[in-house]
Amino acid sequence: MTMADRPVVVVDTNVLLNLATPVVDGRAHAPSGEDPFRTVLAGYDVHVPSSVLGEVSEAIESDDLLSAAAELVFRASHQLTTHEVDAAIEGPLEFGLDPGESHGIWLANELAADMFVTDEFNTTNYLFVSLALEDRNTLFTTPHVLCMLAADGILDVGYVNAALTYFVETKGWDRQYIGQLRSKYCSE
Q1: What is the model's pTM?
Q2: Residue 186: pLDDT above 70?
Q3: pLDDT-derived band of residue 96, with 50, 70 and 90 as boundaries?
Q4: Is residue 91 predicted with pLDDT exceeding 90?
Q5: How far is 51 from 74, CA to CA, in rounded Å?
Q6: Which of 89, 108, 134, 125 is nearest to 10 (CA)?
Q7: Dmax of the chain from CA atoms?
Q8: Mind listing the pLDDT tens digit for each residue in 16-59?
Q9: What pLDDT digit, counting tens, does each position of 137-172 carry?
């Protein structure tokens, strides 16, 4: 599959870090057997504003799981298409969005991306993000993407279910939202 054949996806910082976290987490409760980060990079033409890579490099500065995930993302950054958007937009969107999210929304609109993936679903910002996107059908979350990859047979359903449980327990992802995604996409 060539890059031109892959759907164009714009992601924010947390999406990249969340996809990389189970890959670098060596603890017993971390899901294993798949690499969702590499799978997304291989299956989609992933675009980010440069501010996302800035946020990733800032996350490397600590010595914890987030830092290890950020380092993995940074090492794979050559597989991302990076865009300078600061000069192209009047100013970042407000309402609690960080520059990566704000610039990502602008980039998704500019590229007419197939998907804008954010993990703002646990916050009131999700509604604002959906309103800021020119095509609300492009709004996805990391758990939604993982479930779609399982439904398409690209990631193992058992792995995705384990990953969703992992994220509910470690990131506090909304159980009801995850349950709805599981019932729609990840029934074994």
Answers
A1: 0.92
A2: yes
A3: low
A4: no
A5: 13
A6: 108
A7: 48
A8: 999 999 999 999 999 999 999 999 999 999 999 999 999 999 99
A9: 899 999 999 999 999 999 999 999 999 999 999 999
Cβ atoms of 15 and 119 within 8 Å: the answer is yes
Length of the chain: 188
**Inter-CA distances, 52 with 13, 74, 162, 164, Å:** 5, 10, 27, 24
3-state SS string over the chain? Answer: CCHHHCCEEEECHHHHHHHHHHHHCCCCCCCCCCCHHHHHHHHCEEEEEHHHHHHHHHHCCCCCHHHHHHHHHHHCHHHCEEECCCCCCCCCCCCCCCHHHHHHHHHHHHHCCCEEECCHHHCCHHHHHHHHCCCHHHEECHHHHHHHHHHCCCCCHHHHHHHHHHHHHHHCCCHHHHHHHHHHHCCC
Domains of the chain: 3-141 (3.40.50.1010)
